[in-house]
Amino acid sequence: MSETLTFMMGEFAAEFPTDRLYAVNHMWAQEQSDGNLRFGFSAYAVRLLQDVYFLDWSIDAPTTLAAGQEMGSIESKKAESSLYSPVRANLLRFNDELMEDPSAINTDKHERGWLFETDHQAQEEAQQLLSPEAYLELLVTVWEKTQRTIKGQLNE
Q1: Concatenated DSSP letters for 17-82?
Q2: Could you give the CA distance from residue 72 to residue 86 in angstroms, rounded to a whole number?
Q3: Which residues pair with 31 in a beta bridge?
Q4: Which positions ≥6 away from 147 have C-beta within 8 Å?
Q5: CA 148: distance to chain centroid?
Q6: CA nearest neighbour of 50 among 14, 10, 78
Q7: What are 1-60's pLDDT values in tens digits?
Q8: What angle do CA 124, 127, 132 make, to 5 degrees?
Q9: CA distance 118 to 129
């Protein structure tokens, strides 16, 4: 793995490899040796979810994804959430290992815990994703609101 940047979530250090790009929906994208892009959850998302125990895809691969298209859902100790594609792309495959046991999302989020892979044509779409530095800047701006949401104080 490459160098990392760190964002402090209270006492928890969320580390972000610098060899990938990041989406505002808290997914990372990493180019593979064949030019395809692999996507997974950022450390920030994994920390907020805590203990993912169920993952379900509502679409089948291969298919064409629209940016923002709902793809499936995830359940964890802290939340149930829909999953959305961060870019327009040709979806090639899902990480089948996670369907049997999604715990790699918790334990190895940057390697074995990847979610899905798109073809190399998504490279152009990936230009709209954030650099690791820009993603950390985004986290700084949303962290206060995130903390209030976690504590149930969003409207205060």
Answers
A1: ETTSEE-TTSEEEEE-TTS-EEEEE-HHHHHHH-SEEEEEESS-SSEEE-TT-EEEEEEESS-EEE
A2: 13
A3: 37
A4: 10
A5: 22
A6: 78
A7: 579 999 999 899 999 999 999 999 999 999 999 999 999 999 999 999 989 999 999 999
A8: 145
A9: 15
Sign of CA dihedral 141, 142, 146, 148: positive
What would the pLDDT profile of 48-85 be if each residue is shown by its tens digit?
998 999 999 999 999 999 999 999 999 998 889 999 99
Provide the total of helices (H) and of strands (E) in the chain, helices listed first: 5, 11
Residues in contact with 19: Cβ distance below 8 Å, sequence separation at least 6, in sequence order: 1, 2, 3, 30
Chain center to CA of 152: 24
Q: Where are the domains of the chain?
A: 4-150
The CA-to-CA distance between both ends of the chain, in Å, stands at 41
Task: For residue 62, say if its preceding peptide bond is cis, omega within 30 degrees of 0.
Answer: yes
- Class of 4-150 per CATH? mainly beta
Strands 27-31 and 70-76 turn out to be unpaired
pTM over 0.85: yes
Average pLDDT, stretch 134-156? 78
